[in-house]
């Protein structure tokens, strides 16, 4: 059954990638790098948090035009229910003129609820987020929902020395027309080295929509995540997922 599930997942990913590539607004494949340190809650500690650094390039490891620096404080409301408050700074430059001042500087805050569920090998994450954004001093709201599925390959759980597949899709909305703003799709392969360190690499497509244009950008996404495990308390089964 697992082989059939993985095979079906692979076919869906391939078909999705082919359809998205047709609509690409920039035929160059970009680079998306994410490094995250997480202090999760566990059976004893309700409070946690994370910090994350991110960079994006217009081409493969070239023309780095975008950076994010952000973090948040989390609280485990109940088993598999986690609330989080986050804030961050986002800087965008013109990749054709990286020496010029930033085109967009954004300060952001957000409130978030994450619900995890475990269906045998399939690990599902539902994430709901409301954002308050200041782009060059102009205020905007945004609302996001992400469904993430993680399937371990050689173990039933995400434990040390586990290969896994991660697939998510996220939709972005705002309270002003056009309400649909963006769709983000990712398909990656990952490896959990030990209780703390995991790495993922794969495909990420970001489809942007505005009043005047629409199109997608293909990216190679590389994610490195380090979990801080407390000495006291029993760690919960986790889903290796980006906090972006």
Structure notes:
- With 244 residues, the protein is mainly beta.
- 9% of the residues lie in helices and 64% in strands.
- The chain has one helix at 2-22; strands at 24-39, 47-59, 62-78, 81-92, 104-119, 122-135, 138-152, 162-173, 180-192, 197-209, 214-227.
- It has an eleven-stranded mixed β-barrel with strand order 1-2-3-4-5-6-7-8-9-10-11.
- The longest helix has 21 residues, at 2-22.
- It is globular.
- Residues 1-24 have low confidence and may be disordered.
Distance between the termini: 32 Å
Strand content: over 45%
Number of helices: 1
Task: Please tell me the overall pLDDT.
Answer: 88
Order of helices and strands: HEEEEEEEEEEE
Order of strands, widest sheet: 1-2-3-4-5-6-7-8-9-10-11
């Amino acid at each position: 059954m697992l082989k059939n599930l993985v095979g079906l997942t692979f076919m869906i990913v391939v078909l999705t990638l082919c359809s998205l590539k047709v609509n690409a607004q920039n035929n160059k494949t970009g680079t998306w790098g994410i490094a995250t340190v997480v202090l999760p809650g566990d059976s004893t500690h309700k409070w946690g948090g994370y910090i994350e650094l991110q960079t994006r390039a217009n081409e493969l490891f070239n023309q780095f035009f975008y950076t994010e620096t952000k973090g948040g404080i989390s609280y485990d409301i109940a088993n598999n229910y986690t609330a989080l408050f986050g804030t961050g700074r986002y800087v965008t430059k013109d990749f054709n003129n990286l020496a010029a001042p930033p085109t967009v500087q954004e300060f952001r805050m957000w409130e978030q609820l994450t619900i995890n569920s475990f269906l045998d090998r399939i690990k599902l994450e539902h994430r709901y987020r409301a954002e308050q954004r200041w782009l060059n001093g102009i205020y905007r709201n945004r609302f996001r929902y992400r469904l993430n599925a993680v399937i371990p390959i050689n173990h039933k759980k995400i434990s040390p020395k586990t290969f896994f597949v991660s697939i998510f899709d996220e939709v972005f909305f705002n309270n002003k027309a056009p309400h649909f703003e963006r769709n983000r799709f990712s398909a990656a392969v990952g490896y959990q080295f030990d209780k703390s360190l995991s790495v993922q690499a794969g495909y990420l497509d970001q489809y942007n929509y505005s009043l005047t244009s629409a199109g997608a950008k293909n990216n190679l996404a590389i994610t490195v995540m380090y979990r801080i495990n407390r000495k006291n308390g029993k760690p919960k089964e986790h889903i290796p997922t980006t906090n972006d």
